[in-house]
Amino acid sequence: MRILIVEDDRMLAAGLAMMVEGAGHEVVGHAVTVRAAMDLARAHTPDLTLMDIDLGLGGSGIAAARGMRKHHGLTSLFVTEHPERARQAPDAALGVLVKPYGNDAVRATLDAASLLLAGGQVSAMDLPSGLEIFPREPKPAHQPAPAAGIGIEMGR
Q1: Residue span of the structural domain in which 30 resides
Q2: Fewest CB atoms within 10 Å of the CB: 6, 69, 93, 148?
Q3: What is the pTM of this model?
Q4: Which is an annotated GO molecular function term of this record (predicted)?
């Protein structure tokens, strides 16, 4: 997968990038602000964004994840030490990986994300410690259009 890392701590971002690349994925960029994240997302179209929630002066990772989904159709996964805040925004991301994390957790997280993005399912028992996948809203069933000339009259 092509991964964008959005993290204001440059040391954490560098370590995460090494783990992502070690798992066989490509890091397409690193951003420390919402604006830079949106620019990189537009330029590189990543498969997944690993998004810190608190970007310090760089803005809100939750807002960035929502913007990426709305404007670019991109999926984010929160990577944070504030899972309670991530759980309040399940519409914005696939799930949350809690800091601190290790190499094995990152590798298993990327495997699970890849499977989910391909339309597969992952059992909660198969998730690494620290990874929580948010429930997906079911897609609405296709409603056929009413036949011409048939209507419902209200108010009589």
Answers
A1: 2-133
A2: 148
A3: 0.85
A4: transcription cis-regulatory region binding
